[in-house]
Specification:
This protein is α/β, with parallel strands linked by helices. The protein folds into three domains: 165 residues, 3-Layer(aba) Sandwich (Rossmann fold); 194 residues, Rossmann fold, CATH 3.40.50; 126 residues, Jelly Rolls. It is 34% helix and 21% strand. The protein has 20 helices and 24 strands. The strands form four sheets. The chain has a seven-stranded parallel beta sheet with strand order 3-2-1-4-5-6-7, sandwiched between helices. Helix 1 crosses helix 6 and helix 6 runs antiparallel to helix 15. The longest helix is centred in the C-terminal third of the chain and has 34 residues. The two termini are 66 Å apart. The mean pLDDT is 86. InterPro entries: Glycerophosphate_synth (IPR007554), TagF_C (IPR043148), TagF_N (IPR043149), Teichoic_Acid_Biosynth (IPR051612). It is a peripheral membrane protein. One of its GO terms (cellular component) is plasma membrane. One of its GO terms (biological process) is teichoic acid biosynthetic process.
């Protein structure tokens, strides 16, 4: 029976806390619906502030937060968090955090570890809805995450809704010690530079990475025009970009992440306060296009970034509806044009916006909620999740990929217990045949007292005909952990399966482990049939015994000898009784 969930409960998460598309959607939900909401928060200071503001929340990994995640009908995150915890019947939404200009997912050269891609496939399969802003972003996201494109929904991003209703100048005035109402303001939002590998230049010398950087010249220009540049770096780079790291113009102001959090403000609450955007490869420019204001792309390292990280198209300028500059001279020239009211790329932005946005409005959250409620009421799963049974059917060619190499681990206790430093890995293949014997010949380290044999990591094997030899002596004394013995077989259906072999004080030089192994994932049906057949055989044998016993009990000889059996029983009962 499927578990029942609280149909009116939504649990939220974002990185950083209380932000991004999760935050935008939450704003809509609390103002326009009767759903209950709960935030899972990582930062204790943010948690305490949210509690003071009356936001229902709990700390990540706390018992309360875990319970809320377990019982909620809807789980909403800005990435794929919650995907692992999500159970059948729950709806997981990856509200995501940007239009795909840079390659991500399976296309990301910054992530090359196979385990990373395996984990990515698990969480993307677990999720039920991924938000997108347009048909192009929908197709790109589904391709880079290798998911069913039907679960990538063209709802728009909920965070962009905030730009349509927030009093941006008022919110910004709470954050900056300047006159935001009578100044010209430019927002500088560079993309993340601290990644899994080199991602373009790291901006170690100056905030723009210009070869012709001159802080005094920038300051002179801004002061002359009563203008400011407000810089907000990616939260992942916040520690690196501190205003004291290198010389900055006085009119270039860092917008502190903690200050934003303290005022429960996101960049989307203040975006409309600016007269123009300066960025490089950050997808924030796609959101800013909804405001129809000038955009400058500052890309002095575009070739290096392209080689290091990569873009979804060979020529990223095709997706940049604004001037691209590589020098400080180019920056100041184009800021001057904007200050004079020139907007050379206005027609190009208007021409390209359907490519970036299927909806130019503030109703993304409304559309997302409709998709969520539709999915919750449909009681069905997407094609990605349905694939699981194809790998488990022996008559399907995909089953051959489900039973590939298995890694067995053999641990040696030499007086310090079992540890990773005294371990051997043995690979074996379950595809070779149901009755082909696996043989491990293992030379033991000196002073080995105990051996732990883990047939696999997750518990998926059925072991038959197990024999263990110490040197040339076969043993039968071993302990089974996280498995069950069924007659002459061992079924390991739980995680961390183990067979413990104790050598005691014996000086054993070599052990040999022999067994026949089947994969429970793909042969569970056969195993069940075999077990049923054995049970039926036992039933038949019991039935035959009952029939024979009944014949004996109803026979004439049995009845005639009954008095003798009574006397014999009396004698046995009183045998040795001296009073007789």
């Amino acid at each position: 029976m499927r578990k029942e969930y609280d149909k009116k409960l939504m649990v939220f998460e974002s990185c950083p806390d209380f932000s991004d598309n999760s935050r935008g959607f939450w704003e809509y939900v609390v103002k326009n619906t009767d759903y209950k909401t709960y935030w899972v928060i990582r930062d204790e200071e943010v948690y305490e502030e949210l509690k003071k503001q009356g936001v229902v929340c709990g700390l990540d990994n706390s018992e309360e937060a875990s319970q809320m995640i377990e019982k909620a009908q809807f789980l909403i995150s800005s990435t794929f968090d919650f995907a692992v915890q999500k159970n059948v019947g729950q709806v997981h939404v990856s509200a995501w955090h940007g239009f795909p200009l840079k390659v991500i997912g399976f296309f990301d050269s910054a992530s090359s570890e196979e385990d990373t891609f395996d984990s990515l496939k698990v969480i993307t399969t677990q999720t039920d809805i991924i938000t997108a802003t347009s048909r192009f972003s929908r197709l790109t996201l589904s391709g880079m995450f290798a998911v069913d494109p039907r679960k990538v929904k063209e709802t728009g991003y909920p965070r962009n809704d905030i730009m349509f209703w927030s009093d941006a100048k008022k919110e910004l005035s709470k954050l900056l010690p300047i006159d935001v109402y009578n100044s010209k303001l430019f927002f500088y939002l560079p993309t993340m530079r601290k990644g899994l590998k080199g991602e373009g230049e790291q901006f170690d010398d100056n905030i723009f990475n210009y070869l012709d950087y001159d802080a005094d010249e920038i300051d002179w220009f801004l002061e002359k025009n009563n203008a400011y540049i407000v810089a907000k770096v990616h939260f992942a780079d916040a520690k690196k970009y501190k205003s004291g790291d290198f010389k900055l113009p006085e009119r270039l102001i860092f917008l502190d992440n903690q200050e934003l959090e303290r005022h429960f403000c996101t960049i989307y609450h203040i975006m409309n306060a600016f007269d123009g955007l300066i960025t490089d490869y950050s997808s924030v420019y796609v959101d800013y296009m909804l405001l129809d204001k000038p955009i400058i792309f500052s890309c002095p390292d575009i070739e290096k970034y392209k080689n290091d990280r990569g873009f979804v198209v060979d020529d990223p300028t095709l997706l940049m509806p604004g001037i691209m500059i590589k020098t400080q001279k180019g920056l100041l020239e184009n800021l001057d044009k904007i200050l004079k009211g020139e907007d050379e790329y206005k027609s190009i932005r208007q021409e390209k916006i359907p490519f970036f946005h299927g909806h130019v409005d503030g109703d993304s959250s409304k559309r997302l909620l409709q998709e969520m409620e539709k999915l919750a009421g449909a009681d069905e799963i997407d094609s990605g999740k349905k694939l699981a049974h194809l790998f488990q059917r022996a008559d399907n060619p995909l089953s051959q990929y489900a039973i590939s190499d298995i890694e067995a681990e053999i641990f040696f206790d030499v007086g310090e217990g079992f540890s990773e430093k005294n371990k051997m890995i043995k690979k074996y293949d379950l595809v070779k045949g149901n009755d082909e014997k696996v043989v491990f010949e293992i030379e033991l380290p000196e002073k080995t007292r105990n051996i732990r044999f883990d047939p696999d990591h997750i518990g998926r094997v059925r072991i038959r005909s197990l024999s263990i030899w110490e040197d040339n002596h076969r043993i039968s004394d071993y302990q089974i952990v996280n498995g069950s013995r069924v007659k002459h077989e061992i079924i390991f259906e739980k995680e961390d399966p183990q067979i413990i072999i104790s050598l005691g004080d014996k000086e054993v030089k070599k052990i040999r482990i022999e067994f026949i192994c089947n994969d429970l994932y793909c042969t569970s049906g056969n195993i069940i049939n075999e077990m049923n057949e054995k049970m039926q055989q036992v039933k038949r044998e019991n039935s035959e015994l009952r029939r024979v016993l009944n014949e004996i009990c109803t026979s004439t000889s049995w009845k005639v000898t009954k008095p003798l059996r009574i006397i014999n029983g009396y004698i046995k009962k009183n045998k040795g009784d001296k009073s007789c």
